[in-house]
Design a protein that fits this description.
four-stranded antiparallel sheet, alpha+beta, 13 strands
Length: 213
């Protein structure tokens, strides 16, 4: 890889033919597009590709959440790439080819805003989740006006229910109405606080798995 000092490709960012331009640490770099290998992938390569494929497909369904949740990322990557990279390292269970998502360790957002304090989840009404929390701000960053976002995933249907920025931290509770067909099915639930304006977030909190009533 070379560093561009001038010439017709000096400001090349992206791909033109076999030429690829990037900006790394404020400097333009230039490389050739890699050619696909004719060799079959090794077991080690497949063990990396499978988690990449799992999380790329899974997180793509909630890409608007990821764009906000991983808005702080390296200059040469996207929010989605940052989220996929984190979760590949921290939220995969099993050994190739039997790898799967480790839901409790999944992170859907990463930031310095105080997360939910003492969250409690219950299901007392058909197809509804009752979430409550304390409005205590446990870190130095946060506000009672931070808005709560909820992400509910149903693995048996491979479907998400998202409620984005629906209630302020100060309210301390929210009831999530789910599709009636989800009754008796298991779901995984995540909660995020987003600062007003959407420029800062908390780490997502895994509230747990629960069978919907």
């Amino acid at each position: 890889m070379g560093r561009l000092m001038g010439g017709p490709y000096y400001f090349l960012v992206g791909r033109t033919g076999n030429n690829v331009g990037r900006v790394r640490n404020g400097k333009n770099t230039f490389s050739m597009r890699p050619h696909p290998s004719s060799k079959p992938p090794t077991e080690a390569q497949l063990a990396v590709r499978v988690p990449f494929g799992i999380f790329t497909a899974w997180l793509s369904w909630i890409s608007p959440i990821i764009e906000i949740g991983f808005q702080e990322h390296d200059e040469d990557e996207s929010a989605m790439n940052a989220a996929v990279g984190y979760n590949i390292k921290n939220a995969i269970t099993g050994v190739y080819p039997m790898q799967a998502i480790d839901y409790p360790n999944v992170l859907l957002s990463r930031g310095k805003v105080s997360g939910p304090s003492s969250p409690v989840m219950a299901t007392t009404v058909d197809a509804q989740l009752d979430i409550s929390w304390s409005d205590v701000i446990e870190s130095t960053i946060g506000s009672l006006t931070d808005m709560a976002t909820f992400v509910v995933y149903n693995p048996s249907r491979e479907a998400f229910a998202v409620r984005a920025s629906v209630v302020a931290r100060s309210v301390e509770s929210y009831d999530i109405l789910l599709p009636s067909a989800w009754s008796t099915e298991n779901v995984h639930v995540y909660m995020i606080f987003v600062a007003v304006g959407g420029k800062a977030v908390s780490n997502s909190a895994y509230l747990g798995a629960i069978v919907v009533m």
